Amino acid sequence: IHLPNGAIVKAYFSGTVQFSPNFIIHDLLYVQKFNFNLLSISKLISSLKYSLTFSHDSCRILEMGT
């Protein structure tokens, strides 16, 4: 994985996370040397058909059509 600072790190695992019965994200990567959890906004709104709304202190994720 290429990081914004130019470093290249290895993803050790790929998996699935189920946040709720209707909110499942596949192909998540585990990067051992990374201190943060990142979520691809472009993947959520394109391939998974979710809508995101940001405010000053939160992010709301909605499935399209609900």
What topology emerges from the helices and strands here?
Elements: E1 13-20, E2 23-30, H1 41-46, E3 50-54, E4 59-63
Antiparallel strand pairs: 1-2, 3-4
Report on this model:
This protein has 66 residues and is mainly beta. It has one domain (13-63). The chain has one helix at 41-46, and strands at residues 13-20, 23-30, 50-54, 59-63. The strands form 2 sheets. A two-stranded antiparallel sheet has the order 1-2. Strands 3-4 form a two-stranded antiparallel ribbon. The termini are far apart.
What is the subunit organization of this protein?
single chain
Helix content, binned percent: under 10%
**What integer is the average pLDDT?**
84
Shape: globular
Order of helices and strands: EEHEE
N-C termini distance: 34 Å
Give the helix/strand class. Answer: mainly beta
Count the E strands: 4
Computed over alpha carbons, the radius of gyration is 14 Å
Low-pLDDT stretches are none
Q: With helices defined by DSSP (H or I, 4 residues minimum), what is the helix count?
A: 1
Biggest sheet overview: 2 strands, antiparallel
Whole-number tally of structural domains: 1
Strand content: 35-45%
What labels describe this entry?
single chain; 66 residues; mainly beta; two-stranded antiparallel ribbon; two-stranded antiparallel sheet; 39% strand; globular
Could you give a quick summary of the protein structure above?
The chain is built from one helix and four strands.
